[in-house]
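Run L-rhamnose mutarotase through structure prediction, thanks.
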Amino acid sequence: MTKRHVLLLDLVDEPESIARYEAWHAAGAVPKPVVASIRAAGIAAMQIFRSGNRLVMVMDVTAAFDPTAKAHADAADLDVVAWETLMDGFQQRLPWAAAGEKWVQAGLIFDLAAQG
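Sure, done. The structure for L-rhamnose mutarotase is below.
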């Protein structure tokens, strides 16, 4: 069984920057140690969608996923730190993000399954 997380973030609203960000996320472009760290954390599936400069990340995680443990592991992993530093140059925080918060969790407001 998996749980779904939906997170939001904006990109710097410059076409060239957005194109470079997308190129970094093309199939095979993300460094293998970064992909391995995602999978090792219990993230079973992850997709990022874009509309304009807004990103939506959808993650399906296993019961083993612990976001606090993932954050600590990432801070100790030089490959992940380098990746996040690179990505920070393309990203900007949402205006309502808490201090230090990068990707903001979206709240579920509608679920077709709950409608009967």
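Residues 3-96 form a domain with the Alpha-Beta Plaits fold (CATH 3.30.70.1090).
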